[in-house]
Amino acid sequence: MLDLKFIREHGDEVRNGIAKKKFSCDLDAFIATDGERRDLITRLESLKSQQNNAGDAIRNLDKKSPEFQSKIAELRTLSEEAKALDGQLEIIEKKWKALYLSIPNVPHESVPIGKNADDNQTVATWGDTETISPFAIPHYDIPWFNQLIDFPRGVKVTGAGFPFYIGDGARVVRALITFFLNEAKANGYTELMAPIMVNGESATATGQLPDKEGQMYHDVTDDFYMIPTAEVPVTNFFRDEIFEESELPIYRCGYTPCFRREAGSWGKDVRGLNRLHQFDKVELVKWTHPDSSFEELEKLRHDAEMLLQKLNLPYRVLSICTGDIGFPHSKQYDLEVWSGGQKRWLEVSSCSNFTDFQARRAGIKFREKNGKSTFVHTLNGSGLAVPRVLAAILENNLQKDGTVLLPEILQDFVGAKKIGSI
Prior knowledge:
three-stranded antiparallel β-sheet; 18 strands
């Protein structure tokens, strides 16, 4: 969430920032409710002060005196008024919190202005899309594709978007995860094995709630959510904790399966590995000093890019515009790999700086040298999401004989140079 003092003192700036994003919220209603809440708190504190003063006065009075009876009556009246205000404040607090949580983060000044994904800006490219295999076809059209990834049986066991990976398919997925984690360790990230279900407080802390209820699988009985990304449990690892300034920055990474309902997705975007309800991903997470968070974002992006370079997969980097950037995001880069068979770009990583937006929700601070506690900045990035990386590998490296030549960096992990047969 945004700094409450900043909202109160810079309402127009916040309003302009929100207007650039795709999320609607009633800032005026929040400001009005905030004023009402503050007024109630002031009145309640005044009543409690009067109660304390009356209580102090009673101790010095004769219990049989008219003054004593008068103070008792005054205390009774004050108590009834305070009880009524407490009830009003409880109602206003709920409304105030709901409105507060609906306010998105404001975009950083360096974020390009735009209305939707068409306005995202390409800021870097790597590799030559013209030098990939001349035999490339969509991965789902490769004759032996269903021998590696079985969608029909996944539908039978669970439903659409929950495939089985078989034999070489499973080994390549495991190889990619191991490669990603090894590279993360080499870049200073400590690995976590995280829960794949979280409570509502955790989802609220990272900004999935109240923004993405419809995209998450929800267990109503225990009120747990299947994670859409390891960002949620890993970021919450330090919830309600205070670091020493000397500890920053802190790097963590984690591999998890991820679960997304992907409501409303259809057509070519969901064919094969393009869009799944369950998929594997390694996430990179940082807790940083506010003064260095945007520098750390560039480092994070570099860590993700190097994975694609070592896999020899052409890609581009998009700076996501104000109209397409996420709810808790201040700045966001997307990395898209070239899909040689489909002749299109596929997103495989999103690298983002949330400034102190998540940290305020999660209560994550650091203690400055002067003893003052300040909220950290949180960042995360996919390093990387497996399915579309696998799709690009299959398409871009398809050989004349129908096999797929694996990237050299994966060959030792898989124990083979090629996979597949016609």
